[in-house]
UniProtKB/TrEMBL annotation:
InterPro entries for the chain: AsnASE_II, Asp/glu_Ase-like_sf, Asparaginase/glutaminase-like, Asparaginase_C, L-asparaginase_C, L-asparaginase_N, L-asparaginase_N_sf
Matches recorded under PANTHER family: 60 KDA LYSOPHOSPHOLIPASE, L-ASPARAGINASE
Superkingdom in the source lineage: Bacteria
Keyword Nucleotide-binding: no
Pfam families linked: Asparaginase, Asparaginase_C
Gene3D superfamilies: 3.40.50.40, L-asparaginase, N-terminal domain
Species assigned in the record: Virgibacillus tibetensis
Keyword annotations from UniProtKB, A to Z: Hydrolase
Entry similarity comment: Belongs to the asparaginase 1 family.
Protein name in the entry: Asparaginase
Start and end residues of each L-asparaginase N-terminal domain: 3-198
Transmembrane feature ranges: none
Secretion signal, residue range per the UniProt entry: none
The UniProt record lists the keyword Hydrolase: yes
C-alpha cells in the first residue's frame, strides 16, 4: 500500500457538538488524526497512514506561520521520507487560502490533498467521514500527480487556485467558478479527472525554490457604494504595510475617494493589486487607472491575490515583474 502522511490542523472535521444534532455551536479541535484512524478503519485499509498533528484550531486562527511550517513538513514527507502523498485536514473557512499557498510553494509533484467538513465529526449525517476517506482515495490515485494542490470535498475535486467556499452551512459549498471542477470521486470509488491546471504551480513555480521565513504585510480593503477611502488612509499612515489588495466593484473599480487614497498609498511605496468582489471574471488593465501603477489581479479572489502578492514581493518590488507573475500564476 502507498504511504500517506495525514497532517491535521483542526477545523469542523475535528469537532464535537453539544449533541448529535449540533451543526453550529460545536467546538473544533477535539479530535485528532489517531481518532480518525480509530473511527474509520477504512483509512488503514487504503494506505499506510502516518499521523502528523500540527495544530488543532478553527481555520479562522490559521495564519502565515502555519503556511510556512506546513510547506516544510509537506516537503519533508514527500521529498525526504519518500511518502506517496499528503492529506491535510483543515477548517473550511480558510482552506482555500492554505491550499493556494501550498499550490504556489510546495516543491513536489506528488498529490497534496486538503479536506474539511461542513458538519462536525460527531454529528448526524456528518460529511466528515466520507470526505476524509475520499481525500485519501484521491491522494493514492496515480492520476492525482502533477495536478498541483487539490481540495477534495463532497465528492468533488477542485484546483487550489480556483476553489472558494460559497455557502455558510450547505455541504455543496466549494465551487471553482467558471473554470469548474477538476474531477470527481464516484460511487464506484473511481477518481475521475476531466481537466488539469495549466497555470504554474508546485515544482514549476519559482516560489517552490524560494526560501520562505517571513512574509510582507498586505491588507485587503473591500469597496462599496460611497466608500470613503479612510481605511486605505489608515493603512498608509500606519507605516506597517507593504501593500493593499482592493476588492473592487465590478471589474475592479472603486470610488473617487478610494482612488485618491490609493494614489497616496502608492506614493508611500505600497503595492496595489486590483481585484473584484463579484466572484467571477478577470480584472483587466484600465486606461484611467494606469497612473496608479496597480497590478491587475486577473480572476483571483481578493484573498488569493493577497497570497500571490505576498510571494511576489519575495522576488521583486518592480510592478511590471509582479504583473508578469500575476499573468503566469
Amino acid at each position: 500500500m502507498k504511504k500517506i502522511a495525514l497532517i491535521t490542523l483542526g477545523g469542523t472535521i475535528s469537532a464535537k457538538g453539544l449533541h448529535r444534532g449540533d451543526l453550529k455551536d460545536y467546538q473544533s479541535g477535539l479530535l485528532g488524526g489517531n481518532d480518525f484512524l480509530n473511527e474509520l478503519p477504512e483509512l488503514s485499509e487504503m494506505a499506510n497512514i502516518e499521523v502528523v498533528q500540527i495544530d488543532n484550531v478553527s481555520s479562522t486562527q490559521i495564519n502565515e506561520n502555519h503556511w510556512i511550517k506546513l510547506k516544510k513538513i509537506v516537503e519533508y514527507y514527500l521529498n525526504e521520507q519518500n511518502f506517496d502523498g499528503v492529506v491535510i485536514t483543515h477548517g473550511t473557512n480558510t482552506i482555500e487560502e492554505t491550499a493556494y499557498f501550498l499550490h504556489l510553494t510546495v516543491d513536489s509533484n506528488k498529490p497534496v490533498v486538503l479536506v474539511g467538513a461542513q458538519r462536525p465529526f460527531t454529528a448526524l449525517s456528518t460529511d466528515a467521514h466520507l470526505n476524509l476517506i475520499q481525500a485519501v482515495r484521491v491522494a493514492i490515485d496515480p492520476n492525482s500527480s502533477n495536478k498541483g494542490v487539490l481540495v477534495a470535498i463532497n465528492n468533488e475535486i477542485n484546483c487550489a487556485r480556483d476553489v472558494t467556499k460559497t455557502n455558510t452551512y450547505r455541504l455543496e459549498t466549494f465551487r471553482s467558478g467558471e473554470t469548474g471542477y477538476l474531477g470527481f470521486i464516484d460511487p464506484d470509488e473511481t477518481v475521475r479527472y476531466y481537466r488539469t491546471p495549466i497555470r504554474r504551480h508546485t515544482i514549476n513555480s519559482e516560489f517552490s525554490k524560494t526560501p520562505i521565513t517571513s512574509l510582507a504585510k498586505i491588507e485587503i480593503v473591500y469597496s462599496y457604494a460611497g466608500a470613503s477611502g479612510e481605511l486605505i488612509n489608515f493603512i498608509t499612515q500606519s507605516k506597517k504595510y507593504d501593500g493593499i489588495v482592493i476588492a473592487g466593484t465590478g471589474a475592479g473599480r472603486f470610488s473617487q475617494k478610494e482612488e485618491k487614497s490609493l494614489y497616496e498609498a502608492r506614493k508611500n511605496g505600497l503595492h496595489i493589486v486590483r481585484s473584484s468582489r463579484v466572484g467571477n471574471g478577470r480584472v483587466l488593465d484600465i486606461a484611467s487607472y494606469r497612473g496608479l501603477k496597480a497590478v491587475s489581479g486577473d480572476n483571483l479572489s481578493p484573498q488569493k491575490a493577497r497570497i500571490l502578492l505576498l510571494l511576489s514581493l519575495l522576488q521583486s518590488n518592480d510592478v511590471e515583474e509582479i504583473q508578469r507573475i500575476f499573468n503566469e500564476y
